[in-house]
Amino acid sequence: MNGAPRDRLVAAGRWCFGDRRGLVLWLGLVCWFGLTWRVGFFIQDTYAMANTLVALADGQLHVTELRYSLTFGSQPGLYEYQGRAYGRNYGMLALAVPLVWALEAGAAVVAPRLLLAGIWAGLGLVLVTQVAEFDRFDRGRTRAAGSLLVMALFVASVLTATDLPTDRLALVALQLSTVLAAATAGLVLYRLVARFHGRRAGLAAGATLGVATPVGFWATLPKRHTLVVALVVGVVYAFAVSRAREGDAALRARAGSYALAGYITWIHAFEALFVVGVLGAVDLLTARDRSARTLAVLGLVLLVASTPMLATNYAISGNPAQPPRLLPSVGPDAEFAPAAGETPSGNGTTPTPNNTTAEVGATATPGATATGTGGDGSTPPSLLDTVRDGADTVSAFAGRAVVGGLAALTQPDRLWHTFVRSGTIPGVNYGTNNFEAIDLTVLEATPLLGALAALPVLAGRRLRAAADRTLPPRDPRDWRPVRQTDLLVVALVAVLTVVYLPRLPLFSTLTVRYLHPVIALGAYGVWRVPAVRAALSDAQWAVGSYLASLALAVAVLLGGVGGLGLAVGEAVQYNALWNLAAAAVCGAAVTGWTVSDRVPDRLVAVAVALPAGFTTGYLLLSGLVYFRYGSYAFDVVRVLADHVPAL
């Protein structure tokens, strides 16, 4: 490829990935997530999401086919309006629709299992060729060795391949969409940290988001939280870019942050309300340009970005301010009838889920409100009534969340069981998980956050500097871009934590998934700590420490599972205790470096690598040992999993 087309392709690549390191990071994370990818249902409400995706791919908002079902009847996450069943998180599902079409087209030529293996191998080969371009590697040898490894894994996957039904492709597409979102979150964090602290720190930050935080755990579990993480980190990145530029370039970046925040409304309006509110407040506080023209442009961008949500709500219920979550859930007495003209199977039993339509009968959950021109001939509400009802709903939800969250801050036990130690928490119903304590706290799930223990020391130094009048001007508009970005991150963390505290701790959150965006922003905060960045002064030592920590973690964790005969909950809590110990070591070393010159960088590197290695161990064992469901996307991994203990 020569000339203008090649130049445009290179420009597009730079816009998306920033540089070769960004591309390598993104490809590496996608390949990493694929290693423990299982095609199956781990969370029950995934059934409803997958069925809604099937409907969207067929051009329908309402669920017309129960392709996936554990039992007949209602599914968590389905809502009823005027006799039809609807899903939720349409903004997330819309991104997966093109993947459904692409996979179905590919499956018409290649068997689905081989198609997945081919996609993974293709990305792996691109990754190898890009890595070989770095100066520190011998190009020929790196390409040869890497290509040989990728092809060996591909051939092994082909030789061990089992059948994957084509009707599972919608589920595959849904999982693949969150894999791509998780990798993109790592890429954006790389570009954000690299903007302030260089590409080495940025690369470490992006990699740790994928291998040392719950982002890696949820990458193949199709929940909204992963996509919201990518969008929230994107909001912060666009904000940071806008503070480093002037004129139209700054306005475009500011508009990008509002566009990303507005898109969250189509995924989860509740979270979007607070993200948009915090962004707007911090943006106005720190922006140099507050002209009416600029504010009008930003408002218009936010409105356009929110239009898909408003249109979807209107198409479903006739009220653009009423998302499906506010509709009555499809109840346990709902009737899901066979498709028109379909007869039961030969033995007279109910047809299989794949041949069932989701038509909600008259026994659906009562209490549905008819907003709009309902079938009862009621007069449609006026625009003023719709706006007023929407405002009342928003204020009620937001008010309850904020008041409840502030009240939760006065409950030490709740905070302890949410952020520090889980175990068997009093008042939490574990019946859904067979009475297994498989849920972790924030620190147990991300022990790398132990590095934030140095923040009080750093904050104290800033206060002393303020007393000496050596800080930058007090007007936030005159702060450096990194300080303004920190303000946005702190505000988002505070608000998103407070509004979810009333619901925590809760069963089946596994890694406190409601605080998923908060944990990702916390990972940004870790790399803002000078001691953590100093740990990268010797890159080879840092990488070697991480690999050694991972080897130690796998040995210790597998040894505990096999030697102690642990059940699932016991194994997860055993892992949690090791994670807490690693977090304590990390916090002590980072704080020690911060207060004393006697703590060497290499010691901090080992201390930071320790929680990262144990978290990666948790991700690996979650996929291979702790939680078994569905079938592995690549059968060569299944062969490996058959040789490790199962719980």
Short description:
Helices cover 62% and strands 3% of the residues. By secondary structure, the chain is mostly helical.
Per-chain topology:
Layout lengths: L2 H15 L2 H15 L3 E2 L6 H12 L21 E3 L2 E3 L3 H18 L4 H20 L7 H21 L9 H29 L1 H13 L2 H5 L5 H20 L3 H18 L4 H18 L5 H26 L18 E3 L17 E5 L22 H26 L3 H8 L22 H4 L9 H13 L13 H20 L15 H11 L3 H5 L4 H26 L3 H28 L5 H26 L4 E2 L2 H7 L6
Antiparallel strand pairs: 1-6, 2-3, 4-5
Helix pairs in contact: 2-5, 2-7, 2-8, 3-4, 4-7, 5-6, 7-8, 7-10, 10-11, 10-18, 10-19, 11-12, 11-13, 12-18, 14-18, 18-19, 21-23, 22-23
Portion in helices = 55-70%
Our Rg estimate from Cα atoms comes to 25 Å
List the helices and strands in order.
HHEHEEHHHHHHHHHHEEHHHHHHHHHHEH
Mean pLDDT: 87
Percent of sequence in beta strands = under 5%
Largest sheet report = 2 strands, antiparallel
Given the helix and strand composition, which structural class is it?
mainly alpha
Secondary structure tally, helices:
24
* Overall 3D form: globular
| DSSP E strands, number | 6
Uncertain parts: 337-355, 362-377
Biggest sheet strand line-up: 1-6
Q: How widely separated are the two ends?
A: 52 Å
Detailed description of the structure:
The chain has helices spanning 3-17, 20-34, 46-57, 90-107, 112-131, 139-159, 169-197, 199-211, 214-218, 224-243, 247-264, 269-286, 292-317, 383-408, 412-419, 442-445, 455-467, 481-500, 516-526, 530-534, 539-564, 568-595, 601-626, 635-641; strands spanning 38-39, 79-81, 84-86, 336-338, 356-360, 631-632. The protein has a two-stranded antiparallel sheet. Strands 2-3 form a two-stranded antiparallel ribbon. Strands 4-5 form a two-stranded antiparallel sheet. It has 24 helices and six strands. Strand 2 (79-81) and strand 3 (84-86) form a beta hairpin.
